[in-house]
Design goal:
434 residues, alpha/beta, Rossmann fold, N-(1-d-carboxylethyl)-l-norvaline Dehydrogenase, domain 2, 3 domains, six-stranded parallel beta sheet, 17 helices, globular
Amino acid sequence: MRVAIIGTGYVGLVSGACFADFGHDVICVDKDVSKIDALMRGEIPIYEPGLDALVAENVEAGRLSFTKDLGDAVKNAQAVFIAVGTPSRRGDGFADLSYVYAASEEIAAAIAGYTVVVTKSTVPVGTGSEVEAIIKRVNPDADFSVVSNPEFLREGAAIEDFKRPDRVVVGAEDERARNVMKELYRPLYLNETPILITNRSTSELIKYAGNAFLATKITFINEMADLCEHVGANVQEVARGIGLDGRIGSKFLHAGPGYGGSCFPKDTLALVRTAQSNGAPTKIVEAVVEVNDRRKRQMADRIIAACGGSVKGKTIGLLGLTFKPNTDDMRDSPSLAIVPALEEAGAVVRAFDPAGMGEAKEHLKNVVYCDGPYDALDGADAAVLLTEWDVFRALDFDRIKSLLNDPIFVDLRNVYDPGTVCTLGFDYHSIGRG
């Protein structure tokens, strides 16, 4: 099947490469000339394990290509995916759909023959209907259907998630569109992947509801971690105890500095605004957004408290900057709240991240960026583990102790055993463990 992907960001590039690997003929479109030129040279603009090899293999096989010409790509496609950004709109928190609607207008002008237009971007309920209206207005004679097909890709595991998903959700209003989508995802039938066919509005809401629920689980266990610290309990054991209940499950019950990334922050806020505007406020999700924002700022206070109540004139060695490991994504990372708070309190921050320092430099201008974890801790007054990259999971604590001015270790991801680290002579601080 001939597929056009509009947008070569995280979702568009991963989806395009995976569809090509399924055997479809895929062309990815972007207005950013430098990005398309880089992709044509084999340069991948995002950090995602395995994506560079997957793109190269399918380009070599002739199934994947890149272009700046949207019109040419669309007129030859049977399915056109809109995979452009939908950031939070400044001022009110609603999803900014300007890129989606602009793409819809361009697609409408180029449609030739029956075409399924698919919203892959995360969009609020009703967006598919507006896309349909735009295409009808621009090209009244167009033969097309609009489908919702939300993505459920985890950064750092996106290829696996696309090829072996928990489910595929398709929101379609007519049988022709459903058949096209079934053909696109036919390779997944071999894996017995559940494919949920529903209407557009339901499909659009599934994406937001799913992310809001996961964000709620994270925020819940973070609040339980705070309670554990007051009553002498261990949040990791609490999480295991409740996670073994099949009705709850163990995933997303890891206490830490709060959620971040490209999805949870903007999607929870967009859901809140959508619900409010429709007269059905989501009080639980509203509380989740508020608690998570506050938690990120509180992490700086924890670090300051671990340093004796003041970091004025002190140096903090920070391990990890991205919101999670195996990505270079800095969007809404806890570090973006923690670092400025530490600097405002008078600290100098030295930091190392295996993949995110290029992105971090765009946001955190005063940080001293280092060549490795031990370089970041050299001469620091405290070590802070913020992102649980594998490279930070087996640190040499004897070496760390020799580098630090004071043996203070703040573990915001509960990577290490408290008893073991304390035995090595450290003043060790973690999350929700008594």
